[in-house]
Design a protein that fits this description.
Oligomer: heterodimer
Helix content of chain A: 10-25%
Strand order of the largest sheet of chain A: 2-1-6-5-4-3
Shape of chain B: globular
Distance between the termini of chain B: 15 Å
Distance between the termini of chain A: 27 Å
Largest sheet of chain A: 6 strands, mixed
CATH architecture of chain A: Roll
Order of helices and strands of chain A: HHEEHEEEE
Shape of chain A: globular
CATH class of chain A: Alpha Beta
Number of helices of chain A: 3
Number of helices of chain B: 11
Strand content of chain A: 35-45%
Number of domains of chain A: 1
Largest sheet of chain B: 7 strands, antiparallel
């Protein structure tokens, strides 16, 4: 693990972004550990714990899988027809080595129906692990910079 | 556009139709502000959101920036957040604690009781300038029901308790979750816009007719998580029996036998085995306190309560307080909070918050599909000049009980809306 370099982390995050933009959600699931979490805190409480604060999303691995199953169903009306997204990942930093914690900035452009483009801007915080030589996601938090979701509306795709 | 033609209500003909202009037209939208929002009791916030002297939160209600706070004596206060000098928003932070509120523009400073405390260069004002006349203004009426604080811009409005009327029974049922009858807003606010008319969210919040079709993926999620979702009985659309009730003054509620998980005493596998004894303990405390029969209502029913015009108390997968502000005919801003008993253990609190996210909110498994539905309706209403009327007649030919999938409670909202819109 001490051998980790930023370039490897960047490649991994870019790969993940490409899978999500392509809606290859099963391939994305394969990047997660068996106990992975996915969280989006409420905009007014960006540094909270879902045990005692209301989040927008606070999934354990079971609910991440259920979320993917739902998103693949054409009856998930919020994402049918699906949004098109384009993620730009930048400012990737290794902030802790043991365990490996990585932060990155993101801009996600989301296009849907006749809507104006919606821009989701924020910071990712990842807990990563190396399993059988490959990086895997143990925790994944997307912290939005917007003071409120407001015109961003819902977070019905994977942020 | 004559307001009298917006709701076609002819019970003897079994007709009830809504003119779609009511959801689109800018003049009607403007009239709603003066005829409905400036006459009805509007939700401001919950007592638990400000706790100590000087605690404040700013929020906007009916287009007015407000300061919702505790004064020097720790009393709940609501001030119009606008400097008496030039109108600047005095307090520009979302929340905090203040000794005094200073307007940054020219420095007029108010104390926690709203009194004008200091004016830079006061000597230049004439001798008749009286600081005591320039305190922060308050809305004409502010009243509270069991921790829920409301305002009214009509000084002659009926008292809040009378306005809420029969709806208090359903507020009380929610508060019975707490041993002391006290609930608190849990921190973390879900704030999001919906590109639709606010009345569509009124309907959606307590219309159970849409559940099966709009939320099929949520039902699938429950089933795949081990929740028993029964086939509806003959003549029914939903897995359990439920009513729709008109509570008077435009308020209404669903009152349903529960089939989903509830953080009060309706355990489902999603909550995990560790939570089971805790939920049993909560259940037995409630039963001891309020008796078997009422405990069944508190624990085994879920209710979506509309307080006319724009407050919804959802007591389902969790308890959510949701209020929404009309911004434009085709846009509203929603604020939603989670509510929990003040005595709740960390484990029960965790279950409550987790259960909330299975259904509600902008990242939940159901709310985003509701929002998609409302936005799709609004888009479709672009045809309102050609396709003028929407029927709202489910259950209208029936005597006796009205189901949650009927529309009697939705009609009650529209009848009150129409009455206020037509009042001079």
């Amino acid at each position: 693990m001490n051998e980790i370099r930023r370039a490897e982390v960047e490649d991994f995050l870019y790969h993940e972004a490409a899978l999500l933009d392509a809606w290859r959600l099963d391939d994305w699931l394969a990047l997660l550990t068996e106990d992975a979490t996915y969280r989006v805190p409420s905009n007014d409480e960006p540094q909270s714990d879902p045990k005692n604060a209301l989040f927008t999303i606070a999934d354990d691995i079971r609910r991440i899988r259920a979320r993917v199953a739902r998103l693949k169903d054409p009856h998930a009306h919020a994402e049918f027809p699906r949004s098109r997204t384009r993620r730009l990942i930048s400012n990737v930093r290794i902030v802790e080595l043991q365990p490996l914690v990585v932060e990155a900035n993101f801009v996600i452009y989301r296009f849907r129906g006749n809507d104006d483009v919606r821009q989701y801007v924020g910071r990712y915080r990842y807990g990563l692990e190396r399993r059988e030589g490959k990086l895997r996601i143990k925790s994944r938090e997307a912290i939005l910079d917007a003071m409120e979701l407001a015109s961003l509306g819902t977070v019905s795709f994977i942020l | 556009m004559s307001a009298s033609r917006l709701v076609l209500n002819e019970p003897s003909e079994l007709r009830f139709e809504i003119n779609r202009a009511a959801l689109v037209d800018a003049e009607i939208f403007a009239a709603e502000r003066s005829r409905i929002f400036e006459r009805c009791w509007l939700y401001v916030g919950h007592e638990s959101e400000v706790r100590a002297p000087g605690d404040f939160r700013t929020r906007t209600v009916c287009g007015r920036p407000l300061l919702f706070c505790r004064d020097g004596e720790n009393r709940l206060r609501v001030f119009l957040n606008s400097c008496r000098h030039r109108g600047t928003v005095v307090c520009r932070e979302p929340a905090g604690n203040a000794q005094r509120y200073t307007c940054f523009y020219h420095g007029w400073t108010y104390d926690r009781d709203g009194r004008l405390y200091a004016v830079p260069g006061q000597s230049a004002y004439p001798p008749n300038f009286d600081r005591s006349q320039y305190g922060l203004k308050e809305p004409p009426r502010v009243e509270e029901y069991r921790g829920f604080v409301f305002l009214n811009f009509d000084a002659n409005a009926t008292a809040l308790g009378d306005y809420l009327g029969k709806a208090t029974e359903y507020i009380d049922l929610v508060l019975d979750q707490s041993p002391s009858g006290r609930m608190e807003v849990i921190h973390g606010t879900q704030e999001y816009d919906i590109r639709a008319n606010w009345k569509l969210l009124v309907e959606n919040s307590f219309d159970d007719y849409h559940l099966l079709t709009t939320h099929s993926t949520w039902l699938d999620y429950l089933k795949s998580s081990g929740v028993e979702v029964k086939r509806p009985e003959k003549g029914h659309l939903l897995p359990s029996h439920g009513l729709g009730k008109d509570l008077g003054n435009g308020h209404g509620t669903t009152d349903n036998v529960n089939f989903r998980g509830r953080p009060v005493a309706a355990w489902i596998p999603i909550y995990g085995d560790a939570a089971k004894p805790e939920l049993e303990r909560i259940r037995s405390e409630i039963t001891r306190r309020v008796g078997e029969e009422r405990a069944r209502r508190v624990c085994d029913t879920n209710r979506n309560l509309l307080i006319f015009p724009n407050l919804v108390l959802l007591d389902g997968s969790s308890v959510s307080v949701r209020s929404f502000q009309p911004v434009a005919p085709d846009r509203m801003r929603v604020r939603a909070w989670a509510l929990g008993p003040v005595e709740e253990t960390p484990l029960a609190r965790q279950v409550r918050l987790d259960s909330f996210l299975t259904f509600y909110g902008p990242g939940g498994f159901a709310t985003p599909d509701d929002i998609a539905a409302l936005e799709s309706v609004q888009e479709g209403l672009g045809t309102y000049k050609e396709v003028q009327w929407s029927p709202l007649t489910r259950g209208i030919a029936k005597q006796g009980e009205q189901l949650n999938t009927d529309e009697a409670h939705l009609r009650a909202f529209w009848v009150q809306w129409d009455k206020l819109m037509r009042a001079a």
